[in-house]
Amino acid sequence: MRWRDPASSRRLVEEFATVEDALDFRAHLRLAARGGVLDELGRGRILLRDFVENEWWPKDAGRRLERNTLKTYAPVWNVHIGPRLGHLQVRQLNPPVVQAFKERMEADGVGPPTTRRALAILQAICRYAIAKGELSSNPVREVRKPAVRRKLEIVAISPTQVESLRAALADDPAGRLLVTLVAYEGLRPEEALALTEAHRRQSTLLIEQKNVDGAIVPGQKGRRSGDGRDSRSPESFGPVRSDIAQYLLATRAGRVARSGVAGALGRS
Predict the structure, then answer these.
(1) Rounded mean pLDDT, 72-85
(2) Burial group, residue 179, by CB count within 10 angstroms (0-12, 13-18, 19+)
């Protein structure tokens, strides 16, 4: 049976096993039109995989999320969500379907962290589908996400071990500086690799950006700087100031290329 969706003017097709089923659907259309809800019958007919690839990923996730986050989302969609749910129409997503999806992942031996992330991604997709008029409610909210507990204790290396590393890198100013920044300032490697001389203050470092695959992007959320950017300013300790000075002397003397640490403390 062919019918026209009044919201989009699309001609839609419904297939039925019997004539009686087709007549029942026609009666349903009449009742929906009489009640002013006919447009809801055409909602969510796009396949989930098409909605993600053509709508959510480029128009929402790609604009809103950081590159590192997108890199972790892609394999979860490609390996877990897409193969299990991508063939469904968006309107077919409901709490029982999402619950079954979660249970299949658990039965397949997928760990709680990945299962939880898959549900979080699916919830974000459904949230955008609501905004686009493809869903009226978010089915993922009704499904309990698995708890994730840290399995391994984080063991920080001692100052003695840090100093041993620094001594071993005495002839490598770039590597020594990277170790010092990570160990004594708590910088993430991508933050250390985005530092420039402009970020060195008299007794602090300004951390406001990071290096992601060679591209300099805004850093993690922290205290807002005067221009509205996220930043923080940890105190620079003696070993840090010493290694920064040694590194800059080495680069200016031509003994080490500034690209040796992908731009760390390069000129702004």
Answers:
(1) 96
(2) buried
Residue at which a domain ends, from 111, 142, 173: 142
Judge whether 124 lies within some domain. Answer: yes
| Tally of domains within the chain | 3
Q: Give yes or no for a contact between 134 and 43, defined as CB atoms under 8 angstroms apart.
A: yes
Three-state SS across 196-212?
EHHHECCCEECECEEEE
CATH number at residue 82: 1.10.150.130
The predicted-structure confidence for 220-267, as pLDDT tens digits, reads as follows 655 444 444 456 888 989 999 999 989 888 888 776 655 444 455 655
User: Which run of H or of E encompasses 96?
Assistant: helix 95-107
Sequence-ordered list of residues with C-beta below 8 angstroms from that of 38, at least 6 positions apart, any chain: 6, 29, 32
Same domain, 171 and 230: yes
pLDDT at 155: 79
Q: Which domain holds residue 208?
A: 159-261
What's the CA gap between 114 and 102, in Å, rounded? 11
Compute the average pLDDT of residues 90-102: 96
The C-alpha atoms of residue 59 and residue 97 are separated, in whole angstroms, by 25
Contact 16, 22 (CB under 8 A): yes
